[in-house]
Amino acid sequence: LLKGKTALVTGSTSGIGLAFARAFAAEGAAVVINGFGDAGAIEHIRAELADTSGAITLYDPADMSKPDEIAALVDRTVAETGGCDIVVANAGVQHVSPIVDFPTDKWDAIIAINLSSAFHLMHAAIPVMKAKGWGRIITTASAHSLIASPNKSAYVAAKHGVAGLTKAAALEVARDGITVNCISPGYVWTPLVENQIPDTMKARGLTREQVMNDVLLAAQPTKEFVTPEQVAAFGLFLCRDEAASITGANLSMDGGWTAA
Ligand code: NAD
Which parts pass through the membrane (predicted)? Predict the structure, then answer.
C-alpha cells in the first residue's frame, strides 16, 4: 500500500507510535521513528522496522518541545527518504494533578509536546506534501479532545487544541490532496497509561485495582482497553485512497466512552 512513500511518526519508540511505525513498515513505507529511550532498544526497533519494510528506516531524536528540532526532523526526513508523505503527530506526555498544584513547567511542557509540536510539524511538512499533491496528516488526540477528566487540565486543554488545529489544517489543505484527521482513542494499554496509575492512586486515594477498574475502565463501556494495533490499523486506513474524503474529522476509538 505504501511503497515509495515516507511515514514520519513522532513518539514512536513506544506505545501507539510504535504500533503506527510497524503498520506503515508492514506496508513497505520508508519510516522515520522518533522519541526517547534506551539507545540499544531503539536501534533494535529501527532494525526490525527496516527488515519488515525493506525501505529506508531512520531514527531521529528530535525533541517535540523544540520547534527548531521539529523543523530539522522534517528537513532530514525529506533529504534522506525523498519525501514526507504521511505524518503522525503522536508524541505526548501526561501529568496528573489538580490545577492549584499543577507545576507551571509541566503545563508548558504538555502544551509544547502534545499541542504545539503538531503545529510545527504541519508548518514544515505541508509545503512538502503540497508539492507532491498528496499527503496524510494524523494527530493522535484522545477522548480528552472531546470531554474532560479532573486533574488533567493541561492534557485536556492540549488535546482539545489538537482537535481544533486538525480541523483548521484540514480546511486549509482540502484542495491539495492532503487529509488531516485526529484519531481519538480512549484508554489504550501503553506505558503512558501504566505510568499514571501511581499518580492517580495518590491523587484519589485509591488502590491500583480501583484505578484500573473504577477510574480508567469505568469510563469505557466495553470494559476493554483499546490496543495500539487497533489505533494503527485505523491510521493505515486513513492512508488509503478510499479515505480521501475523510478530513477534518475527530475519529473516536474509545469503546463507547464519549457516547455515554
Ligand atoms: P507512550 O508513553 O507509550 O509513548 C509516548 C512516546 O512519545 C514515546 O515514544 C516517548 O519517547 C515520546 N516522547 C515523549 N516526549 C517526547 C518529546 N519531548 N519529544 C519526542 N518524543 C517524545 O504513550 P502512548 O500511550 O503511546 O501515547 C501516544 C499518544 O497517544 C500521546 O499523544 C497520547 O496522549 C495519546 N493517547 C494515549 C492514550 C492512552 O490511553 N495510552 C489515549 C489517548 C491518547
Answer: none
The total number of structural domains in the chain stands at 1
Ligand 1 center–CA 221 separation, angstroms:
23
Nearest alpha carbon to residue 114 among 153, 150, 75? 153
> For position 249, which CATH number holds?
3.40.50.720
| Each residue's pLDDT tens digit, 163-190 | 999 999 999 999 999 999 999 999 998 8
Q: Which domain holds residue 239?
A: 6-189+226-255
Q: Which residues contact 146 (CB under 8 A, 6 or more apart)?
A: 160, 163, 184, 250, 252, 258
Look-up of cell digits 534522506: 80
Mean pLDDT computed over 30-50: 98
List residues with catalytic annotation: 155
Ligand 1 pocket, mutate which of 8, 10, 14 (most atoms under 8 A from CB) = 14
Which of these, 172, 1, 7, lies nearest to 90 by C-alpha position? 7
Residue 208 lies in a domain: no
Please work out whether the CB of residue 185 comes within 6 Å of at least one atom of ligand 1.
Answer: yes
Q: Confidence class of residue 6 from pLDDT cuts 50, 70 and 90?
A: very high
Residue 204 falls within a domain, yes or no?
no
Q: Is the CB of 63 under 6 A from ligand 1?
A: yes
